[in-house]
Design a protein that fits this description.
The protein is α/β, with parallel strands linked by helices. It has 2 domains: 256 residues, Alkaline Phosphatase, subunit A (3-Layer(aba) Sandwich), CATH 3.40.720.10; 118 residues, Domain 2, Phosphonoacetate Hydrolase (Gyrase A, domain 2, 2-Layer Sandwich). The protein is built from 12 helices and 20 strands. The strands form 5 sheets. Strands 7-6-8-1-9-18-2-19 form an 8-stranded mixed beta sheet. A 4-stranded mixed beta sheet has the order 15-16-10-17, with no helix packed on it. Strands 11-12-14-13 form a 4-stranded antiparallel beta sheet, covered by helices on one side. Strand 15 and strand 16 form a beta hairpin. Helix 7 runs parallel beside helix 9. It is globular. The two termini are 22 Å apart. The C terminus is likely disordered. This is Nucleotide pyrophosphatase. GO terms for molecular function: hydrolase activity.
């Protein structure tokens, strides 16, 4: 029976997968196919990536533009944290759709189904199945078909740390990997090492200890899958959603715009800034579109804005212009190493509310080399052990790859099946 098992170690950069830091992943590389030019989407943030992975589409298609984004509501631009448990349901009420294209969970209805275990933000977890076609397990609430809450004894009561990840991994193996009536797709999304990287410098002793624990969890799944060799046709995919850069400074873009006379006040909604870590999305209300060129000129002149996308250029990073999105900014980045020798640093856009970035710790969201270097390894039919492929691949390729393994149609996706890349075909 064909089935797919996907394991994501949130935030793990490709260059940190080594025999010293992650021995289980390094050993898996020898018996899987690696993707040496794998990239993620923009913004390189988990909620966006979750939606892109689940749909095989870029944000312009699925509609979840950022970890933080704005919606046009009753004539006003309203900024939202897409990580909130109720965000996608709110988005459905406002726009008519949670996500604008089907997820893998929806596509697999009637074809074996999907189960997702996730220990990241609620919004990122629910982006895999916002409309209740499969089962989603998360510490903020677990749901079955039609998003009906599961009974209390089936809820996932864990913490966002290595202990919580381990408990979730062990349950995932029992309930989604080893059963004789398994789902067609089982997804395990670990919260580490991302959670620790936001608090500690990459390469520090505390960070490396957490990396090793995350690696052990991946190893537990590998060992469990190995016992299925004579029973099921398993496609095992192990990777990450993005990497991290070291934070070297924080820019308050709202304040910069107010000082330049391009935004009425820090709280005004004429121009709305949505920080996405090392990137930002800027929305301009339709009543103030005449100001858009001035805002564009201002952004282009700022040394903290490394790359600015506007108008048609938004499509080049997979974004559209819904809800007044006028600009996407990737903050200034460099190859400068941190105190532990890990290369890659960036400025960040100051976040709303009480969320603060820690100088010297990790962050992501933009186009820096480190954050755009997730890893991906695949073991199963159509992939060659020990081979490193250098053709560009993307997070959006994972969904069509899974559907192809399951023998199901692939259509309406931006990504392509990775089994077809050698022959030049597409999904």
């Amino acid at each position: 029976m064909p089935r797919a098992i996907l394991v994501i170690l949130d935030g793990l950069r490709r260059d940190l997968v080594t025999p010293q830091t992650t021995p289980h992943l390094a050993a898996f590389a020898a018996r899987s196919e690696q993707f040496a030019a794998h990239r993620t989407v923009f913004p390189s943030c988990t909620r966006v990536v979750s939606a892109s992975l689940a749909t095989g589409c870029y944000p312009a298609r699925h509609g979840l533009q950022g970890n933080t984004m704005a919606l046009m509501e009753n004539g006003r631009l309203v900024r939202h944290d897409a990580g909130r448990p109720d965000f996608l349901q709110h988005k459905r009420r406002v726009t008519g759709r949670s996500l604008a294209v089907p997820t893998l969970a929806e596509r697999l209805t009637g074809s074996g189904g999907a189960i997702i275990f996730s220990n990241v933000s609620p919004g990122a977890a629910y982006a895999h199945d916002p409309d209740g076609f499969g089962r989603v397990y998360h510490r903020a609430g677990s749901f079955g078909r039609d998003r009906v809450p599961l009974p209390e004894d089936e809820q996932l009561r864990i913490t966002l740390d290595v202990e919580g990840d381990r408990a979730m991994t062990e349950r995932f193996i029992r309930e989604a990997v080893l059963p004789y009536d398994p789902p067609a797709l089982a997804v395990l999304w670990l919260g580490e090492p991302d959670a620790t990287q936001h608090a500690l410098p990459m390469g520090s002793p505390g960070h490396l200890a957490v990396l090793q624990e995350a690696d052990r969890n991946a190893g537990r799944v590998m060992d469990a899958v190995a016992t299925l060799a004579d029973r099921d046709d398993v496609l095992l995919l192990i990777g990450s959603d993005h990497g991290h850069q070291t934070v070297t400074g924080v820019i308050d873009i709202d304040e910069e715009l107010v000082t330049a006379g391009l935004k009425e006040s820090l709280e005004s909604t004429d121009v709305v800034v949505a920080s996405n870590g090392t990137s930002a999305l800027l929305y301009v209300h339709p009543d103030f579109v005449a100001r858009t060129p001035l805002v564009g000129d201002f952004l282009a002149s700022q040394e903290w804005a490394e790359t600015v996308f506007d108008g048609g250029a938004l499509a080049s990073v997979g974004q559209g212009r819904d809800h007044g999105l006028a600009f996407a900014v990737s903050m200034r980045a460099s190859d400068e190493p941190n105190a532990y020798g890990v290369a890659g640093s960036s400025l960040v856009a100051e976040r709303a509310g009480n969320k603060a970035d820690i100088l010297g710790s990790g962050q992501h969201g933009g186009l820096g080399a480190g954050e755009q270097a997730p890893f991906l390894m695949i073991d199963g039919a159509g992939f060659s052990p020990g081979v490193a492929r250098h053709e560009p691949s993307c997070i959006t390729d994972i969904a069509p790859t899974i559907l192809t393994h399951l023998g199901l149609p692939v259509s309406g996706m931006d990504g392509r099946a990775l089994q077809a890349m050698r022959g030049g075909g597409n999904g």
